[in-house]
Design goal:
The chain is of the alpha+beta class. The protein has 3 domains: about 45 residues; about 70 residues, SH3 type barrels; about 60 residues, SH3 Domains (SH3 type barrels). Helices cover about 25% and strands about 40% of the residues. The strands form 4 sheets. Strands 1, 2, 5, 6, 7 and 8 form a 6-stranded mixed β-sheet that branches. The chain is elongated. The model has no long low-confidence stretch (mean pLDDT about 85).
Length: about 190
């Protein structure tokens, strides 16, 4: 009887070991699958925390002729840069409550309060180009546009934007989209 008991005890021990081994493998695989999903969700950084809900990135412009760009989202953060041109275009790359992290055409980034920003579409000419009468390279030129010229963008088509330049005289015409920083809607 003792040999029969030993055989049954061994079978029970083997059965328990196999069950425990299979259960452990199941737990390890489950952990790997679910932890990968959990980790992938935590590594994606949020670009908006209690922000506007609008698309990011997007282009905005300055309301005032003097705007302070800060190193963080709050008045307690030091001023990093002064922007001194009303209508200057900025790209919003992140939001934190009423503060927007922006970047300039020269890749200077910082935080600006929403009260200092406008949704008026403006842009900067990136290289010397010509203002055309109609959206075509063969069209008559109305003016020569130099880099960093501030322009108002009326609307854009696939490759051309209808713009306005206000100097001593108002000029309205077409410029290739690739020559304008801030020409995208987003």
């Amino acid at each position: 009887m003792s040999s029969l008991f030993k055989v049954n005890a061994m079978n029970i021990y083997n059965f328990k070991f196999k069950n425990m081994f299979c259960y452990s493998i199941f737990l390890i695989i489950s952990f790997m699958i679910y932890s990968e999903n959990a980790l992938s969700k935590t590594t994606v950084s949020k670009v908006s925390i209690n922000g506007s809900g609008l698309n990011i990135p997007r282009i905005v412009s300055l309301k005032n002729s003097l705007t302070y760009m800060r190193s963080g989202p709050g008045k307690e953060f030091p001023v990093k840069f002064e922007l001194k041109q009303k209508g200057y275009p900025l790209k919003i790359i992140a939001e934190y409550h009423n503060w927007r992290k922006v970047i300039t055409s020269n890749d200077i980034s910082g935080w600006v309060h929403t009260q200092l920003l406008s949704s008026v579409r403006t842009g900067l000419i990136t290289k010397t180009t010509f203002l055309k009468k109609i959206p075509s390279n063969s069209s008559n030129s109305l003016a020569k546009l130099l880099p960093n010229l501030l322009i108002n963008i009326h609307y854009c088509k696939e490759k051309w934007c209808n713009i306005e330049i206000v100097k001593s005289k108002v000029y309205v015409g077409w410029v290739q989209k690739e020559n304008i920083w801030g020409s995208t809607k987003n």
